[in-house]
């Protein structure tokens, strides 16, 4: 599993605090706890996943606080909603790839996701958009198939 550096977490926490201030929201200890859980997790987590961690730690934080915090992280551009075809909204970490585009390989059997960056993909998506006179705002690439382990099984 990938490690999140303390440095990266501190930077993201600061960005989030600035966002909260700009929005004119009050600081909240519960919300900060949810932010920390999210930032320390490198997986694509759903609201239910984060809430399960809250419960496991015996924290008194409601589901709606978890939900709203994930929405705020998204609005602050630290998280991004992703949907891998199973109807579950998960939250991705924008900071992991230094806010660069990253793409996903998704195993349809075990749900494993592999993240990657690719200059070639970035470039070709831009040139395709240009060819059709299209101004891209964002794009994503998801490749569905079987991971190495599932192919071997
Ligand atoms: Zn991702
Ligand atoms: Zn698999």
List the helices and strands and how they pair.
Elements: H1 6-22, H2 29-39, E1 45-46, H3 47-56, H4 63-75, E2 79-83, E3 89-93, E4 103-107, E5 113-116, H5 119-131, E6 142-145, H6 148-152
Helix pairs in contact: 2-4, 3-4
This protein binds zinc ion (2 copies).
Enumerate the distinct ligands.
zinc ion
Helix content class: 40-55%
Please give the alpha-carbon distance between the first and last residues: 22 Å
- The low-pLDDT segments are none
Average predicted local confidence, pLDDT: 93
The overall number of domains is 2
- The gyration radius over C-alpha positions equals 17 Å
Binned strand content: 15-25%
The backbone outline, from C-alpha atoms, is globular
CATH fold-level topology of the largest domain? Arc Repressor Mutant, subunit A
- The number of distinct β-strands equals 6
Structural class: alpha+beta
CATH architect. name of the largest domain:
Orthogonal Bundle
Tell me the number of helical segments per DSSP (H or I, 4 or more residues long).
6
Q: Determine the CATH superfamily of the largest domain.
A: Winged helix-like DNA-binding domain superfamily/Winged helix DNA-binding domain
């Amino acid at each position: 599993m990938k490690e999140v550096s303390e440095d990266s977490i501190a930077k993201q926490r600061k960005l989030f605090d600035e966002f909260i201030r700009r929005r004119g929201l009050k600081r909240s200890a519960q919300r900060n706890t949810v932010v920390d859980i999210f930032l320390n997790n490198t997986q694509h987590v759903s609201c239910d996943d984060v809430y399960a961690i809250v419960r496991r730690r015996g924290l008194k934080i409601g589901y709606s606080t978890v939900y709203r915090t994930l929405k705020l992280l998204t609005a602050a551009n630290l998280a991004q909603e992703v949907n891998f075809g199973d109807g579950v909204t998960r939250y991705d970490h924008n900071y992991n790839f230094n806010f660069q585009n990253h793409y996903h390989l998704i195993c349809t059997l075990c749900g494993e996701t592999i993240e990657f960056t690719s200059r070639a993909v970035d470039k070709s998506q831009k040139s395709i958009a240009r060819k059709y006179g299209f101004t891209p705002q964002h794009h994503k690439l998801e490749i569905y198939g079987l991971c190495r382990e599932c192919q071997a099984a």
